[in-house]
Amino acid sequence: MQTSKFKDLLRTLFRIRQPRALPPAGPKPAFGTSIVKDNLKMQLFLAIDYEQWDFLTAQGWRAMDYKSNRRRYYRVPRKAVERLLRADAEKRHEIHQRILDTRYPARYLH
């Protein structure tokens, strides 16, 4: 654990960090899968259709790869995810923007 923190510190000091490119959008995720965008993570506890997945991928959300992921994300609250997934196409952009603009407290960081 200490080794990874030391590596992170060195990367920061020597400005080795580079923004990662957005991976290609994969197939529609299954029920219960987590998807991520920047420093946010939401769990899809409702089944989504292809239109909703197309909207989310257009906004930059991608299915999460657990194997090599050591990043920490702010968990989007369940009610906000439910509101987004149940919204019609007109309201979806507004709700999505509110999710992105919210400053999440540290207790949501996982």
Description:
The chain is α+β, with helices and mostly antiparallel strands and 110 residues long. It is 39% helix and 11% strand. It has four helices and four strands. The protein has helices at residues 2-13, 50-58, 78-86, 89-101; strands spanning 34-37, 40-43, 62-63, 74-75. It has a four-stranded mixed sheet with strand order 3-1-2-4, with no helix packed on it. The protein starts with a helix and ends in a 9-residue tail after the last helix. The model has no long low-confidence stretch (mean pLDDT 87).
Could you give a quick summary of the protein structure above?
Helices cover 39% and strands 11% of the residues.
Cα-atom radius of gyration: 16 Å
Low-confidence stretches: none
First-to-last CA distance: 16 Å
Mean pLDDT reading: 87
Q: Proportion of β residues?
A: 5-15%
Give the overall shape, derived from the CA principal axes.
elongated
Helix content: 25-40%
Helix segment count?
A: 4
Largest sheet: 4 strands, mixed
Q: How many strands appear in the DSSP assignment?
A: 4
The SSE string, one letter per element, is: HEEHEEHH
What strand line-up does the widest sheet have? 3-1-2-4
- Structural class, by secondary structure, is alpha+beta
